[in-house]
Amino acid sequence: MTLENIITTGLVAQWVIMIILIILSIVLTRSFKEVPEGKQNVAEAFVELIAGLVEDNMGKEYIGFVPFIGTLFLFLLCLNLVGLVGIKPPTSDYSVALGLGLVSFLVVQGYTIKKVGIIHYFLGFAQPYAFLLPLNILERISFPISLSLRLFGNMFAATIIMDLLYEALRHVGAVVQFGIPIPLHAYFDVFDGSLQMVIFIMLTMINIKLIAEHD
């Protein structure tokens, strides 16, 4: 395996996005004032947006998940939108989508164990009846798989459609090449990319609440 196979464009894009988000978080959260202004207004508006999302879908007792959901929100959105700058969205690679799905899975299971204890966590697999144990285990395992496949499938399909479009327009005039893809980028990158991000975090929030309260 060569270095080029390990350090892919998608991997570089992820690291660049992480660095940018870290820098932005530092810049936006420095020198907070009692009366917000400028960049502090932007930071507080975003936190309030995520807090409202968590409270509406999970309840006030889950407000501690705001940092996790907010980070997932920004990271996923940026990953899905990089197609606008001519880079293949990393989420169109299943390994990336699966990695994100596993992160959500581990957060769900980790929080549930912390809330109910390790013994009650494993006893929960036999609820409401012991014979449902295999089905309950399968349901837990299928969560990161279904979550990642949904994200990957939509982003991969969008990437293929855009690649086919550009291939078809390759021998056409420059005006047409720049004009026709614009509405499709608006749909596949902006609308569909944002939609898949929302679906991913919504399913994550719902699963956290359902598993924690069911166990």
Proportion of beta-strand residues: under 5%
**Which parts are unreliable, with pLDDT below 50 for 5 consecutive residues or more?**
none
Shape: globular
Please describe the biggest sheet, giving its number of strands, its sense, and whether it closes into a barrel. Answer: none
How much helicity do the residues have? Answer: over 70%
**Average pLDDT level:** 86
Number of beta strands:
0
* Rg result: 20 Å
Topology order in helix (H) and strand (E) letters: HHHHHHHHH
Multimeric state of these chains? single chain
SS summary, helix count: 9
What is the CA-CA span between the terminal residues? Answer: 44 Å
Q: What structural category characterises the helix and strand content?
A: mainly alpha
How many structural units, i.e. domains?
A: 1
Report on this model:
This protein has 215 residues and is mostly helical. The longest helix has 36 residues, at 133-168. The termini are far apart. Helix 3 (39-58) crosses helix 4 and helix 4 (66-81) packs antiparallel against helix 9 (181-214). The model has no long low-confidence stretch (mean pLDDT 86). The chain has one domain. Helix content is 77%, strand content 0%. The protein is built from 9 helices and no strands. It is globular.
Q: Short summary of the structure?
A:
The chain is 77% helix and 0% strand.
Main features:
mainly alpha; single chain
